[in-house]
Design brief:
Blueprint (H helix, E strand, L loop, with lengths): L3 H12 L3 H11 L8 H16 L5 H20 L5 H16 L13 H23 L14 H23 L14 H35 L3 H13 L12 H20 L3 H18 L2
Helix pairs in contact: 1-6, 3-4, 3-6, 4-5, 4-6, 5-6, 5-8, 6-8, 7-10, 7-11, 8-9, 8-11, 9-10, 10-11
C-alpha cells in the first residue's frame, strides 16, 4: 500500500503529464532566472525536514542530501550549451545515490532508512522532471499520456516478445521459478499489484532509462538498434546489485538487458513513455505473481 508521502509525490508526477501544467510551469520558470532554484531548494528542505522528523539528522547526511539535489540542478543550469556530457553527469548524480543507497546506511539509524530512501527517491524523480521537462524543455522525453492506439498495442506486442524470450531463458538460467497460480490469486490482486509496480517502479525507471538516458543517446547517435542496445546494457548493468541471486547478479543483468531493449523499442515506436512503463509493469507483475 502506498504511503501518504509516496501518494503526494505520485500526484505531482501524475499532474506533470498534463501539457497545460507543463506549459504553465515552463512559463513561470522562464519569468525569472532565480525561479529554477525554487524546486531543488524546496525538495532539499523537505529532505532535511524528513531527516529531522525521523531523528536521523547529522551534518554528514545533511550535506549528502543537499548535494544530491542541488549539485545536479547546478550542472543543468550551468549547461547553457546543452552538452550531452553534462546532461549525463546531472542524471548520474541524481541516479547513483539512489542505486547505491546502501553506502549511506551507516549515516542513518536503521528505523529511519526506509523513510529517508523513499523521500530521496521521490525527490530525485520530481527534480529530474523539473530540470529536464520544465526547465530545459528537453525534446523526446515523451512525458505525456498515451494518445494513439499504438501506445497501447505496442506494449502488448512487446509483452508477447518478452514472454517468448524471457520465460524460457529465465528458467534455463535458474532465475525464474516454475510457473504457478497463487492460491489467493484474483483479477483484483493482479490489477492492484500492476498499479503499485507501475507507479512505484516502472514509471520512475522508464523516466530515467528511456526518457532521459536512451532519449539523450538517441539525440547523439541516432535512433538505431545500436543505440537501443547501449541503453539496454546500461539498464541491465543497473540490476547487477539486485538479488535474490548472489551479487553481482549476472543472470539478472542478462534478462534485464533483453527486457530493456524491448522497453526501448516500445518507447521508440510510441508517443508516450507510459507505453514502455506499461510493458515494464506487466513484465514485473507477471514475474512477481506467477514465477516466484
Amino acid at each position: 500500500m502506498p504511503t501518504p508521502l509516496r501518494l503526494a509525490f505520485l500526484c505531482v508526477v501524475a499532474g506533470l503529464f498534463s501539457r497545460r501544467v507543463q506549459s504553465r510551469l515552463q512559463a513561470w520558470v522562464g519569468g525569472g532566472p532565480r525561479r529554477v532554484w525554487t524546486v531543488p531548494v524546496g525538495l532539499a528542505s523537505l529532505l532535511w525536514l524528513t531527516l529531522w522528523l525521523a531523528d536521523a539528522w547529522g551534518f554528514s547526511i545533511a550535506v549528502v542530501a543537499a548535494a544530491h539535489l542541488l549539485v545536479p540542478a547546478a550542472v543543468v543550469v550551468a549547461n547553457r550549451r546543452r552538452s550531452a556530457a553534462l546532461d549525463f553527469c546531472a542524471i548520474l548524480i541524481l541516479w547513483l545515490p539512489i542505486e547505491f543507497a546502501g553506502a549511506a546506511r551507516a549515516l542513518l539509524p536503521a528505523e529511519a532508512q526506509g523513510l529517508i530512501y523513499e523521500m530521496a527517491e521521490a525527490a530525485a524523480v520530481v527534480l529530474a522532471l523539473f530540470l529536464f521537462l520544465i526547465y530545459r524543455h528537453l525534446s523526446g522525453m515523451k512525458y505525456n499520456l498515451p494518445g494513439t492506439l499504438g501506445d497501447f498495442v505496442n506494449p502488448l506486442l512487446g509483452f508477447l516478445a518478452a514472454a517468448s524470450i524471457l520465460i524460457p531463458l529465465g528458467r534455463a538460467l535458474c532465475f525464474l521459478g516454475p510457473f504457478g497460480l497463487p492460491e489467493a490469486f484474483s483479477p483484483v490482486h493482479f490489477v492492484g499489484t500492476f498499479a503499485v509496480i507501475l507507479a512505484g517502479v516502472a514509471l520512475p525507471e522508464e523516466l530515467l532509462f528511456r526518457s532521459l538516458i536512451q532519449n539523450r543517446l538517441m539525440q547523439c547517435w541516432g535512433e538505431s538498434n545500436r543505440t537501443l542496445l547501449v541503453a539496454a546494457l546500461i539498464f541491465g548493468a543497473a540490476h547487477l546489485n539486485n538479488g535474490p541471486q548472489p551479487l553481482p547478479n549476472w543472470r539478472y543483468m542478462i534478462l534485464a538487458t533483453i527486457a530493456g531493449f524491448l522497453y526501448g523499442k516500445v518507447f521508440q515506436r510510441s508517443s508516450s513513455v507510459m507505453s514502455s512503463a506499461l510493458l515494464h509493469a506487466l513484465v514485473n507483475t507477471v514475474r512477481r505473481i506467477f514465477f516466484l
